[in-house]
Specification:
Distance between the termini: 43 Å
Number of domains: 2
Strand content: 15-25%
Order of helices and strands: EHEEHHHHHEHEHEHEHEHEHEEH
Strand order of the largest sheet: 6-5-7-4-8-9-10-11
Shape: globular
Mean pLDDT: 78
CATH architecture of the largest domain: 3-Layer(aba) Sandwich
CATH topology of the largest domain: Rossmann fold
Number of helices: 13
Radius of gyration: 27 Å
Length: 389
């Protein structure tokens, strides 16, 4: 079989390239869309990629049956419409086409990030031992992507891990997760980043998370900070933040427009940190996303934190990251409600696939106690324990 990879701005254009090069009998083996260029894969150009193949014998048969194309008419002459001569295949060729079509119908089209696209999963026809088959079943139940689960299994096989020896399996997984996840360095005012904005969908816990961070910075690290809320859609959110600010002795400003946000930021330039709370946005609402983009780019934000709930469905989280990342540059991730789920597979999938640094995660509603700074060893232990239960 002849196999080639094609890139284009859209799936449709990539398919046209496949059809033009390999003909209508090409078999689509793999498709994905990704951001090319930009920062952390965001703000780049959307690119579609298709890997396709075709039986070389089919190409030869098509070449033999290919109709003769007459030269183009000279400039000035009116072209005449010609009907394409149908290609007639022999019975053996027809059987090959049907076989390839059956293979195509059995294939699944899946989108993966740059991190996973070059991973070659273990041969699906290879019978796993009972121990590894059981481990893979556990991983899939935890909602790990099958490709990632297979990579883990293959890694353990390569390292000669006994799947029945759970201490060895546990240690291997902890090492794998620790070196795979991307963790952000703790925030430091020495980095020059002063203005931090928090964005995300409705109901993920942005305001509570912001209050936890404010308490950590102001009470534990003794930083001078100010809170700005641009979430004027929910009166409760504004009052909640003002209550937290009053308890901690932190000024809270309400801004009704990007111009007001910018004015407040300029007024508090002597502060160590400025934390901006934004209204929850639906990633499917273009108008809301445009408003968020306008707010961020007119306010001179230094770092943008996307807040995600660990209880959100995996494919919805992918959509949220892709949509928010297409409007504003996402620098860090914060996961909330990790205490409300037993399934950590989606969390691992996202961290591996997108490789956006994890800044903080929340395991409860208490301010500020339930906010944790990720550390490779402890986080890998937490995830491993969840994956194996």
């Amino acid at each position: 079989m002849r196999i080639k990879r094609y890139e284009a701005p859209s799936i449709q254009e990539a398919l046209m390239k496949v059809k033009k090069d390999l003909g209508p009998d090409a078999v689509i083996l793999y498709t994905r869309t990704f951001k090319k260029g930009g920062m952390f894969g965001f703000l780049g150009k959307t690119t579609a990629e298709i890997t396709a193949g075709i039986d070389l014998n089919l190409l030869e048969d098509v070449a033999k049956k290919k109709p003769v194309v007459t030269p183009a008419a000279p400039i000035g002459d009116l072209p005449t419409e010609k009907k394409e001569t149908p290609v007639v295949f022999s019975d053996p060729t027809r059987q090959k086409i049907k076989a390839l079509q059956r293979e195509l119908n059995e294939m699944k089209t899946t989108t993966y990030s740059n991190t996973l696209r070059d991973i070659h999963p273990a041969n699906n026809t290879l019978l796993l031992s009972e121990g590894f088959a059981r481990l893979k079943k556990i991983f899939l139940k935890q909602e790990l992507e099958e490709l990632l689960a297979q990579q883990m299994i293959q890694g353990m096989i390569n390292d000669k891990i006994d799947p029945e020896n759970m201490p060895d399996v546990t240690m291997w997984l902890q090492r794998f997760i620790a070196r795979t996840l991307k963790i952000a360095l703790p925030h430091s005012t020495n980095s020059g980043s002063k203005v931090m904005a928090f964005v995300g969908s409705t109901g993920v816990g942005k305001t509570t998370t912001l209050a936890k961070l404010a308490a950590r910075f102001a009470l534990m690290e003794k930083k001078k900070i100010v809170l700005i809320t641009a979430d004027t859609y929910r009166i409760a959110a504004t009052e909640q933040l003002k209550t937290y600010g009053g308890i901690m002795g932190i000024p809270v400003e309400v801004a009704f427009s990007p111009a007001e946000v910018f004015e407040v930021i300029q007024r508090y330039q002597k502060m160590d940190l400025i934390l901006l709370d934004t209204a929850g946005r639906s990633p499917t609402n273009d108008h809301q996303m445009q408003e968020l983009k306008q707010l961020i780019f007119q306010s001179q934000i230094d770092e943008i934190y996307l807040v995600l709930s660990a209880t959100t469905k995996y494919w919805d989280m992918i959509r949220i990251i892709e949509r928010f990342g297409s409007y504003v540059p996402i620098n860090r991730l914060i996961f909330t409600k990790l205490d409300e789920t037993r399934y950590y597979g989606a969390f691992v999938n996202l961290m591996v696939n997108f490789q956006i640094p994890l800044a903080y995660f929340c395991v409860g509603q208490n301010v500020p106690d339930d906010l944790e700074i990720p550390e490779a060893k402890s986080l890998s232990e937490r995830i491993t324990q969840a994956l194996l239960n």
